[in-house]
Amino acid sequence: MRALSVSCWICLLTLAAVMLVHASGASISVGLPCCINVTSHRVRTIIKCNEQKPRVGCNHHAFVIKNKKHRTLCIDPAAQWLQVMIQNGQLSCPPDISLS
User: Fold this and answer.
1) Which domains does the chain have, with CATH numbers?
2) Which of 8, 37, 63, 67 is the 20 to 30 Å CA partner of 92?
3) Across the beta sheet with 62-67, what order do the strands follow?
4) Distance in angstroms (rounded) separating the CA atoms of residues 46 and 1
5) Residue 61 burial (C-beta neighbours within 10 Å; 0-12, 13-18, 19+)
6) Does 26 score more than 50 pLDDT?
7) Has this prediction a pTM greater than 0.85?
8) Can you tell me the distance from the alpha carbon of 100 to that of 53, in angstroms, rounded to the nearest whole number?
9) Exposure pattern of 74-91 as b/e (b: 16+ CB <10 Å)?
């Protein structure tokens, strides 16, 4: 029988750990930001946008935007300018990745 490489063992152990946590129903926190205070002020140059959906440990809906100065801003989903940009296809804001 052929021996598994170290990287294969690490991959298998990681997969097993993820499966155990998922089966137990436990929540995993991966250090995602949580917007508590939001603004509706217009952001001129947007580098990146993600939608923060409510999740365990962070029950606020917001859009997390990084501007040209690499500042992270939390935008109110009801902001009219943001809704128009998303509806017109000028801005794509995929949901953030959470494991909860």
Assistant:
1) 30-87 (2.40.50.40)
2) 37
3) 46-52, 62-67, 72-75
4) 54
5) middle
6) no
7) no
8) 11
9) bbbbebeebeebbeeeeb
Structure tokens at 31: 């250090």
Query: Three-state SS string across the chain, please?
Result: CCCCCHHHHHHHHHHHHHHHHHHHCCCCCCCCCCCCCCECCCCCCEEEEEEECCECCECCCEEEEEECCCCEEEECCCCHHHHHHHHCCCCCCCECCCCC
pLDDT on residue 25: 46
- Residue 66 φ then ψ, to 5°: -105, 125
Mean pLDDT computed over 54-71: 92
pLDDT at 83: 96
Structure tokens at 35: 């917007």
User: What is the rounded average pLDDT of the residues 2-16?
Assistant: 73
